[in-house]
């Protein structure tokens, strides 16, 4: 590598002034997360491969290349954790003697979770560990569920859930700030607002022992969809400055789930339909601003056109959304989130599911829906620009950094936070092994004369 000292404009110096290597605030992280996608039905199945093919590293290349910024990774820990039935948690007098130490999360499964999250992180994507499929726990509070528990049985379930989060927190404590934790998925169908607040408070105390500044995603209880975050207590929000609120949006359900037999609303897109979304999202925005907590839309989507089965290449037996309505729904909801400063991850569970965006069998996309989510559709709002110009990975880097882009590059400049030009490169792989730790700017000049810049952290 050539080491050249070269003066650059005050603009670049100002660009870096005030920047630090410290933890991103929740607001900064939500801005960074932008438009994302769920890796649904993979690690959230009882065992990986049950509901969708096991994820491969190429998935994250495909996600990155299209311009997504974030991958939410729903996970189920139940089948990989010591079972309640295998623990003696009461004595002969029926006194509770259990503790979280009674439960172990299979290290091999944690290895797999780490491998998958690292595939995302090394590409500069934001990754979310979402404890998603462990309904056995939140249904423990629901008197209508077979999982309902009281007394010592509930205490044991609580300790088992604490053990899961202790294992996650310990294993991932040294990962970059681009890894986020999401405590529970949709607990509001089974738990009250106070119960969810209590669990969030308890699990946060576990997380903060090893991850004191990691951004954590929480929701509320007792009300679903856009009303869920509004149930989070103000005292919980004020107790921790690294929180992001989340909600899911499948309104109206009779349209978004219209491939099911009991629903037959196949059209969406009237002024009233759009006004309903705007009203709901404005309510969340006002709450967010009042409570000074940013918002992440963790899931949204509508069933496949005509209930399409991408495995058998046939429409479903009960119909489903018309294609124009499905595309418009994804586009409108995505834009409603981004225009209000929310980030999002659209729900995708692969070609074996009723909500398909990515098809792993041939590494292809349902193009019109993907484009709608990314802002490349008919609305033309907030088109994907810099994300599709180029990506850096790994970021942070220690030895080399790779530049990934579909565009033709003329030149690449690597610039320090003090405005020094350390390198002029024409290769898409840059050796940074002999540079000091810190924040640098990678400035790319494209063949058509356009330029774009991204920050690079060198450890």
From TrEMBL:
Domain Secretion system C-terminal sorting: 392-458
This protein's UniProt keywords: Glycosidase, Hydrolase, Signal
A Pfam short name: Por_Secre_tail
Residue ranges annotated for the Glycoside hydrolase family domain, each copy included: 46-352
Signal peptide: 1-22
Superkingdom assignment: Bacteria
InterPro entries, A to Z: GH (IPR017853), Glyco_hydro_5 (IPR001547), Glyco_hydro_5_CS (IPR018087), Glycosyl_hydrolase_5 (IPR050386), Secre_tail (IPR026444)
Family: Belongs to the glycosyl hydrolase 5 (cellulase A) family.
Name of the protein this chain belongs to: Cellulase family glycosylhydrolase
Lineage: Bacteria, Pseudomonadati, Bacteroidota, Flavobacteriia, Flavobacteriales
